[in-house]
Amino acid sequence: MKKRVLSLVLGVLMSITFISCGSTSSSPSDSKSESSSSESTASGDTIPIGVISPSSGALSDYGIAVNNAIALAIDEINASGGVLGKQIKATYLDDKHDSAEAVNCYNKLKGDKVVAVIGSVASADTSAIASVAAKDGKLILTPTSTNDAITGLGNSIFRACYTDSHQGEIMATFASKNLKAKTAGILYNTTDEYSTGLKDSFESAGKNSGLEITTTEGYGNGDVDFNTQLTKIASLNPDVLFVPDYYGTDTLIASQARAAGYTGPILGADGWDGVIEATDSGSMEALNNCFFSNHYSSDDTSEKVQNFIKAYKDKYDGKTPNALAALAYDSTYMVKEALEKAGATDDASIVKAMTGMTYEGVTGNIALDENRNPKKGAAIIEIKDGKYTWNSTVE
Ligand code: PHE
């Protein structure tokens, strides 16, 4: 009897795992009818690509933006004739910002014989996927994962964004040059690759620019109470406080830091994108005097950026695309270009075509170096009275 119950439970669990990574329910609204197909890459009149993103869970704002932007780019590409005479067809899978789930998603897409995967979003999840995909030689293009180690996992792993050593350095330099800071505190997630990578790069870049790190405090995944660490930080009162995490945690830390009496600038990196949307109006003041590095600014007046913003807004109820959407949009066009250049859909040809690519996108010029990372500038965004405002651009 026990056995039967157990196998029933296991069966249900297995089917949940399968459904969550086999379902397309969290894909962009107009792509809902798409299902994962088992067409082979070489036959049929569509070219299947896979998308992995956290369209539910703690980073769902990111996953949805990425899916929306990819769907927009694919619509544009297909409307203008597709690629290699075929239409691109995407399968969107939800990794829920869970690394084991991300690997399930990858394996599912591999079974569906997608020619390339765009994803995932958070560094920890992309890292897990890349470790597996590198052995397959399957092209993985992460639009947004900045952790340095990811592209080193294999020759088929690329990114459209800059790395954490770059943004950590940008923020340390910004602290010492622009804000004239001499001392810094760091509060970071000791259990997350993105957060630890940024802490390391900020720390080492700080050393080079004469910024003394006077206190480093940590916490773990899922923590919501940072009072002990922030009380200590407030009493030491460093000139700036660096908080490298994602929006849901950043908003908690900012308001608890202000409550603990820390009034100095709080600095972050791209994971701060979305923090305003995650903060209710009563706590918005806590975000004043916060600065973070990002991949693009919607204030950019260039025609390319403004055309993208208009197309995105037209398709998605007037919503302004965030940096993740911009990077995902560029990534889709990079995959298109690789397919065109390859003239084929096998893994080796597509990977070869992506290697060393230069693409002029809405997030700037993306020139992939020999380590499959682009060299790119960054925008520094300041939060003022509930608005993201462009502060400066670092080339
Ligand atoms: N860079 C983040 C990561 O690696 C993801 C991210 C990209 C967040 C862009 C916001 C904007 O996990």
TrEMBL record:
Highest taxon of the source? Bacteria
Q: Name one Pfam family in it.
A: Peripla_BP_6
An example GO BP is:
amino acid transport
UniProt xrefs under Gene3D superfamilies: 3.40.50.2300
Region (Disordered): which ranges?
Answer: 21-48
| Domain Leucine-binding protein: start-end pairs | 46-386
Q: Which keywords belong to this entry?
A: Amino-acid transport, Signal, Transport
Signal peptide location = 1-22
| Listed Low complexity bias regions | 21-46
Question: Which residue windows are transmembrane per the record?
Answer: none
Family matches, as CDD domains: PBP1_ABC_LivK_ligand_binding-like (cd06347)
Q: Which family does it belong to?
A: Belongs to the leucine-binding protein family.
- Protein name in the entry: Amino acid-binding protein
